[in-house]
Amino acid sequence: MKRLFTVLIVALFCSACATPYKAASKPTSNGYFDTLLQPGVYDITFNANDETEIKQVQDFALLRAADVCLENGYQSFSVVNSTNNSKTENGVVTGSNTNNNYSFSYSYLVSETEPKVSILIQCSPDKNLFFDAESVSINLRKKYKIK
Question: pTM, whole model, 2 decimals?
């Protein structure tokens, strides 16, 4: 019973542990990672944990695209290609316990999804492409309360 209670408490505690908007320490870590492929062309990836909604991961990839453009003197960008490489793992957790002359068992399905979105962007020094970098940055930072 203690084990089940502990598992439930940990699950509740982690339910608010979505991946924040931050730089990843390496390409496979949680957070954003970007690579300059050629002048004005960047590959942006955002990896998240299984507590992060895919929509938020997509938004964070777009936010990083806007930030990369602004940091490098560009005003707008277009998404040339996008990939959702989310990995889903399913499993069953089972257990049993005998305590004080009674026994119980439990079993529940575990489904974990690690969202990962990659986008290839083309930046422009003018506001002639699909996304206005400054507007995207302002609006998404406001939506997710990011400074």
Answer: 0.74
